Amino acid sequence: MKDVDVRVYFIMGSFNAAYGEPLEVLEQALRGGITCFQLREKGPNALQGDEKLAFAKSCQQLCQAFGVPFIVNDDVELACRIDADGVHVGQDDLSAAEVRRQIGEDKLLGVSVHSIEEATAALAAGADYIGMGPVYQTGSKPDAKPVAGTSRISEVAALFPELPIVGIGGITAANLDSVIKSGADGVSIISAIAGAGNPEKTARSIVKAVQYIGVNL
Ligand code: 3NM
User: Which of 33, 37, 41, 197 is the most exposed place for a label (fewest CB within 10 A)?
Assistant: First the structure.
């Protein structure tokens, strides 16, 4: 398992930026101190083909300039083509074991899980971290599972203390406290940052809130 700082893990597609240009939103989030970024260019409004490729490269360059890992959601071919730092997959995507085989041992692999069984399988497949959600109600994933709260995070954290867990779904600076206290190593966030009027300030307040709870990876 490779080390990855998932404390404040920002996720965005080009369509998630509520105000301003998506690349400007990402740059602001990076300035605010996010520790990891995932490009999630998925759904009816997603860019395709060359536009997606160009957007991914621009996001990657920004992340590189700030020394923040750049992870691609689901699209293994794109991730390999641009030499991204890693891939994140859900349970309905290519299997985690197959993704690990395709990206090799040196890249980061993240897997969304919803149960102890799925967490166990993700670990066996070579996941470097897992995402668990939705902790709270989310408006960013129409096919999200029912709200799960934090109890499953606590169970998985107790069972696999060495496996980094990020909580996801409806997380903001105001409610991340219980996610981290339940045993998560970090928080994954789309709308609280991408939909903020001031993404830099919001990202900074989330970073501060997580640090305040004293997360030390
Ligand atoms: N996955 P927001 S919830 C991408 O439960 C994603 O696995 C989820 O966006 C899961 O921070 C979610 O805007 C959306 O709620 C998170």
Answer: 197
Q: Is the model's pTM score more than 0.80?
A: yes
Position 3 in a domain: no
192: domain CATH number is 3.20.20.70
ipTM: 0.99
Q: Is 40 a catalytic residue?
A: yes
Kindly give the residue spans of alpha helices, DSSP state H, lying in 33-92.
Answer: 49-66, 76-81
Q: What is the spatial distance between Cα 89 and Cα 111, in angstroms, rounded to a whole number?
A: 5
Task: Enter the tokens of residue 132.
Answer: 């668990």
Q: What is the mean pLDDT of residues 1-12?
A: 97
Total count of domains within the chain: 1
Per-residue pLDDT tens digits for 115-129: 999 999 999 999 999
Tokens coding 143:
């096919």
Domain extent for 147:
8-215
**What are 89's two structure tokens?**
């997959």
Residue 1 within any structural domain of the chain: no
Atom of ligand 1 nearest to the CA of 171: 11
